[in-house]
Amino acid sequence: MTDSRIAKAPLGTDGPEVGVQGLGCMGMSWAYGPADAGQSRAALERALELGVTLYDTADMYGAGENEKFLSPFFKAHRDEVVIATKFAITTSPDDPTKRVIRNDPPYVRQSVEASLKRLDVDVIDLYYMHRRDVNVPIEETVGAMAELVREGKVKHLGLSEVTAGELRAARAVHPIAAVQSEWSLFSRDIEANVVPAAKELGVALVPYSPLGRGFLTGSFSNADTDLTDQDFRRTLPRFTGENAAANVALLEPVRSVAEAHGASPAQIALAWVQQQAAVQGLSVVPIPGTTKSSRVEENVAATRIVLTEAELALLEPIASKVAGDRYPDMRFASAGRE
Ligand SMILES: NC(=O)c1ccc[n+]([C@@H]2O[C@H](COP(=O)([O-])OP(=O)(O)OC[C@H]3O[C@@H](n4cnc5c(N)ncnc54)[C@H](OP(=O)(O)O)[C@@H]3O)[C@@H](O)[C@H]2O)c1
């Protein structure tokens, strides 16, 4: 495994310079079953050594626990890391199992103060609206986020799972550094509208779940049987039941391209999404999630793989054949509102 650091690139026209691959930290505290804290800390340090600078969290990952977990790492390396966190997904005060999306300006302010406290830093480098509450005009939400920039609490703004129209309306209020949305060999719906809008506006794309939440790595084949009870993927239509069985068969071309490169399927999935920067002509910084140093090394090494036209053509049909949506309620994603 090479030790050389990954390349750097600007995160769109309004964002900071970052390593061309970031690190998703969600799984260190939440979503995919228990994680070993020591291993996760080692993974963070290894990522930094390899030139990863963009670290992704959110206030709702483990109800604040993920931000708290990351705080010592961020403080130890404050000048080397770009801290990205998010607000908007909360729970109902009456029913903690029910998700509520909030984009209202008082909530934006309350959330940033809470995140700054948990992270124990003076400023958040990239602050995202995590999900869209269609009852609040996006101009109001971004207006409140822009105030945080003026006050020095936040450096750059981002939006997650917004439609092209929402992105345009937001960009008219304040520069937007990045849109973070699901983008992988399994999830390509954003290519219809969001990617062209981001390209036109100079906004970077930060693909989340670029490994298809792990499915593209071949490390599990059915969430019902292969994953623990607490694993969030058991709620996602494409990883369970007959859909999962059908989707496993789609990994065959990924495996054959991987073999040709002496690489893993995970690396081919990451190389594909990274290569969308050249294919689509915009800034793309994927944030694969892992809790393990060895996988950080493997994932970072994928930034050096270049797929041929023939390989891209072989991988092209996969997404259109995927059985099952990416969320049980697709209004949670931009494609469900476009
Ligand atoms: N904006 C949003 O709404 C949103 C939604 C979801 C996620 N995110 C962000 O995006 C980040 C990444 O997405 P994600 O974690 O959902 O999915 P992902 O990156 O597609 O996949 C993560 C899964 O793959 C496994 N994995 C990672 N590298 C591997 C490798 N080389 N070989 C085999 N398995 C590997 C991880 O397990 P191990 O830990 O065991 O390696 C984990 O289970 C998150 O951490 C979060 O920060 C944002």
From TrEMBL:
Tell me the CDD domains matching this sequence: AKR_AKR13A_13D
A molecular function annotated in GO for this UniProt entry is:
oxidoreductase activity
Q: Which residues form the NADP-dependent oxidoreductase domain?
A: 22-316
Name the UniProt key words of this record, in alphabetical order.
Oxidoreductase
Primary enzyme class: oxidoreductase
Q: What is its EC number?
A: 1.1.1.-
Query: Pfam families attached here?
Result: Aldo_ket_red
Q: Does the keyword Chloroplast apply?
A: no
| Family matches, as PANTHER family | AFLATOXIN B1 ALDEHYDE REDUCTASE, ALDO-KETO REDUCTASE
Give the protein name, as stated in the record: Aldo/keto reductase
Q: What is the lineage of its organism?
A: Bacteria, Bacillati, Actinomycetota, Actinomycetes, Kitasatosporales
